[in-house]
Amino acid sequence: MLFLLCVNFFFFFFCQSSLPDEAVYEKEKPGVTWPKQLNAPLEVVDPEIADIIEHEKARQWKGLELIPSENFTSVSVMQAVGSVMTNKYSEGYPGARYYGGNEYIDMAESLCQKRALEAFRLDPAKWGVNVQPLSGSPANFQVYTALLKPHDRIMALDLPHGGHLSHGYQTDTKKISAVSIFFETMPYRLNESTGYIDYEQATTPEYRAYQEQVLRNCFKFAEALGEMGYDLVSGGTENHLVLVNLKNKGIDGSRVEKVLEAVHIASNKNTVPGDVSAMVPGGIRMGTPALTSRGFVEEDFVKVAYFFDLAVKIAVNIKTEKPGTKLKDFVATMQTANFQSEIAKLRLDVEEYAKQFPTIGFEKETMKYKS
Ligand SMILES: *[C@@H]1O[C@H](CO)[C@@H](O)[C@H](O)[C@H]1NC(C)=O
Ligand SMILES: *[C@@H]1O[C@H](CO)[C@@H](O)[C@H](O)[C@H]1NC(C)=O
């Protein structure tokens, strides 16, 4: 008895003074070592992946992100997404799950549904909402399965005309359902009296201000590009992105995209009317949401247009030197010393510019690769 008491005292003081919990656990349950590993940080468990992530942070900080569907996630969203909620299995809907232990998952999903209906000003007595599809193609698929029966047809743009893969594409228009499906990246709602879509007003003042800045930036960006002689396909029809038709510059989207990437500007090649191939399309599509999140305003987008123009000029010069049709030859010519030094110079200017703006989702001070 006395012996046991001594042992207990020994453990008590040992635990309090020097050993961390895991070491105590190891002593009590010999051979059980994994909880320690499971609670260790990424840079300890998998330094290679941790290092790749550090490189990605540097890329996001130094580059100009113009892909219209990309953006920077906030710290708060990352905290929620990378949380213990990821451990749960939750088939079904709140209150009707296949597995147990969904008390808090149900609370979170119900709250999300409530907020979604409020954002679209829909009466919860009359409307339901499915908040499970995460994004993009799965969300599109949900819309289809909600509105269409198997073998129903929809009207969508052909891929070379700017359609999206998940919309499908077909030319047989005999039996098209008269349903317009809107796929949007910004909040909107249906005005029931006019039948038109209104952009959502019920939002926080910060979000509203951000959204308006996205549009002002896009307008200014389009204006600057127009003044430089670029032919804008979507000027006026889209609010947050511009589609530049490069045909009048004697170059295509694939080649320009390669040079843009090399100078640290992320964009995507895109088909423009009249294109026959989605692989070598005539345009470049660029959007303002991501850089607006980093604090870019109108004058910054004039600068972005200027960088874009310099990259297009390099692409045109490379093509003049190697006029063939193969993208492979273009890329090889791009690697020659002459063009590499031009590219390196522009890349440095782009990076110096982008680095002045804040990082989103992580602190600059915590970065491994700052120079
Ligand atoms: C882009 O990301 C920021 C920060 O995460 C967010 O506030 C903003 O709403 C996002 N923009 C769009 C268009 O979703
Ligand atoms: C619907 O549109 C009309 C015409 O623009 C407008 O007067 C009305 O306020 C809109 N309804 C709502 C609920 O916003």
Automatic annotation (TrEMBL):
<keyword id="KW-0732">Signal</keyword>
<feature type="domain" description="Serine hydroxymethyltransferase-like">
    <location>
        <begin position="42"/>
        <end position="201"/>
    </location>
</feature>
<dbReference type="GO" id="GO:0019264">
    <property type="term" value="P:glycine biosynthetic process from serine"/>
</dbReference>
<feature type="signal peptide">
    <location>
        <begin position="1"/>
        <end position="17"/>
    </location>
</feature>
<dbReference type="GO" id="GO:0035999">
    <property type="term" value="P:tetrahydrofolate interconversion"/>
</dbReference>
<dbReference type="InterPro" id="IPR015421">
    <property type="entry name" value="PyrdxlP-dep_Trfase_major"/>
</dbReference>
<dbReference type="InterPro" id="IPR015424">
    <property type="entry name" value="PyrdxlP-dep_Trfase"/>
</dbReference>
<dbReference type="Pfam" id="PF00464">
    <property type="entry name" value="SHMT"/>
</dbReference>
<comment type="similarity">
    <text>Belongs to the SHMT family.</text>
</comment>
<dbReference type="InterPro" id="IPR039429">
    <property type="entry name" value="SHMT-like_dom"/>
</dbReference>
<dbReference type="GO" id="GO:0005739">
    <property type="term" value="C:mitochondrion"/>
</dbReference>
<dbReference type="GO" id="GO:0004372">
    <property type="term" value="F:glycine hydroxymethyltransferase activity"/>
</dbReference>
<dbReference type="InterPro" id="IPR049943">
    <property type="entry name" value="Ser_HO-MeTrfase-like"/>
</dbReference>
<protein>
    <recommendedName>
        <fullName>glycine hydroxymethyltransferase</fullName>
        <ecNumber>2.1.2.1</ecNumber>
    </recommendedName>
</protein>
<dbReference type="InterPro" id="IPR015422">
    <property type="entry name" value="PyrdxlP-dep_Trfase_small"/>
</dbReference>
<keyword id="KW-0663">Pyridoxal phosphate</keyword>
<dbReference type="GO" id="GO:0030170">
    <property type="term" value="F:pyridoxal phosphate binding"/>
</dbReference>
<dbReference type="InterPro" id="IPR001085">
    <property type="entry name" value="Ser_HO-MeTrfase"/>
</dbReference>
<comment type="pathway">
    <text>One-carbon metabolism; tetrahydrofolate interconversion.</text>
</comment>
